[in-house]
Amino acid sequence: MSESGLTAKFLASQKTPWNETLSCDWPSFSHSHQTPPDFGNNGAPWTTWLLIGGRGAGKTRAGAEWARAFALRNPNARIALVGETEHEAREVMVEGVSGLLAVHAHHERPLWTPSRRRLQWPNGAVAETFSAEDPESLRGPQFHAAWCDELAKWRQADESAAINGWRSPREPLDAFATFSGFDGTAAGR
Questions:
Q1: Which CATH architecture has domain 31-179?
Q2: 145 phi, psi to nearest 5 deg
């Protein structure tokens, strides 16, 4: 049906609530590479999920859906959203077509306060945006989880960065990363 464009025409002809419900049904449309693993390679719960893919692989949507699910199932959770720049974190991770605001049904959508770089869900969960250009800004705040986007583009990426020294509560720290232009040279670090 979609090859001839009929799917798009059909969806466009439907009422908005039906389309919103359908667009927020991520489990029905996600690919297996877009859902987090249940366990790490060692059999223990995972603490870092690395998603590597090309343009259009759905990395941003997968990250936003993961952060959304984490916030909705963990009232009062604190989540760090770290992009290459503040602009990228806002425009891609929060306000983008596959960003956090776009993946929520209207009734569960968090309140976005750009001046505070903060999203707050009705259940009390909070996400804050950060720039990888200012890794020191991650010192001090405490988070339960992080979505780190486009790590390969980070100019300040280094093993001693503040993100690697987070203190509790992070048992375990859930992190999500997307890489652009990854060539495998950092493997094994």
A1: 3-Layer(aba) Sandwich (3.40)
A2: -155, 165
Q: What is the mean pLDDT of residues 23-37?
A: 72
Work out the average pLDDT over 99-116.
93
Question: In this structure, what are the phi and psi dihedrals at residue 92, rounded to the nearest 5 degrees?
Answer: -100, -55
Q: Are strands 174-179 and 111-113 parallel, antiparallel or unpaired?
A: unpaired
111 confidence band (pLDDT: 50, 70, 90): very high
H or E element, residue 22:
helix 16-23
Cα angle for residues 124, 118, 114 (degrees, 5° grid): 140
Mean pLDDT is lowest, of 2-11, 40-49, 123-132, for 2-11
Strands 126-131 and 118-120 come out as antiparallel
Residues 26, 16: Cα–Cα separation, whole Å:
17
C-beta atoms surrounding 57 within 10 Å: 15
Domain boundaries, the chain: 1-29, 31-179
Give the tens place of pLDDT for each residue, 80-100: 999 999 999 999 999 999 999
| Distance, CA of 42 to CA of 27 (rounded, Å) | 25
Tell me the three state secondary structure of residue 17. Answer: helix
Tokens 């449309």 correspond to: 29
Q: Which residue has the tokens 């999920």?
A: 49
